[in-house]
Amino acid sequence: MKKWGVGVRVFLSCLAAVWVALVAAPASAQVTYTYVTAASTPANIETQVTCVAPAVCAAYTPGDVITVSFTTAAPLATNLANADISLLVTGYTVSDGVQTIVHTDPQARLHDFRVTTNGAGAITSSNIDIYRWRGVVAAGAFIDNIFLSNNAPEAYINGVCAVVVNGLAAASPADSCSAGGYDSNRLRLVGMAPGPWVMSVGLPTVTSLAPASGSLAGATSVVITGTNFVGVTGVTFGGVAAASYIVNSPTQITAVSPPGAALGAVDIVVTTGSGSNVNTPSDDYSYTPAVVPTLSEWAMILLALILGAAAVVTLQRRRLAV
Q1: CA 60, 64, 66, 68 torsion: positive or negative?
Q2: H helix runs in the chain, sequence order
Q3: Interior CA angle at 282 toward 232 and 204, to 5°?
Q4: H or E element at residue 84
Q5: CB hemisphere CA count around 159 (13 angstroms)
Q6: What is the dihedral of CA 209, 213, 219, 223, to 10 degrees?
């Protein structure tokens, strides 16, 4: 009876793994894309002629760079062609050495957010336009702006908005700006050498295992749930490579356990190009004694085989009789 209890527990563990794989809500993954220009030179800087309130009095200096950084919940698709990804963007920060505009700023406006990617999913070109209202939202008001047009960067402070319009992106608000102009209050970075886009992913994390234990003999299918499973290069159980694994999504891996060296808990480690998960109790997997059928279980298996064979023989006889 005790062995039957173990069998039932193993069955229930497997059932739980299937349930988690089907209905558990995956944790989010985060991918960051960053663009940084070459350092500015005096030739890239246009200074203010005057500074009259409410304009901001400031100055760019040689060495300032334009930086654009944004995050998504998963890597961008491959072979995008100037595609609007604004609805995929979970956050952004743009800066130019003098100003910084972040997505949480109530005055910030995402006006345009389109990218082109290659066969590996890397960004090769972009049209990104971020505004910030300088106080009142109205035609004639001051705006700040950082944008990339086919990867060519530009930034200015104290521009003048000509028309309040809907933004170009799907996630744009209705009070963005278009056809901005300049007066003697504006300062500007222009003509800077573009930089490359770089994708980075945070360290992977493991938040749950289903099942969290299995036979010392190995061959247990384990659903690993976590974050940042992007570019996975290995999965190990106590330092031993998984017999096999499949990355189902950036938040889920299905791995088959290798044979264990001893009973007890080991760490499951997921490794990507960014590194490996930090050990926590959530990634502990326990090797348990291999379940060997008892004599009575072997007898039932044999009986099932005999009954199956008898059924086949009976069926053949009936067919011959016909």
Answers
A1: negative
A2: 2-23, 295-321
A3: 25
A4: strand 83-84
A5: 22
A6: -10
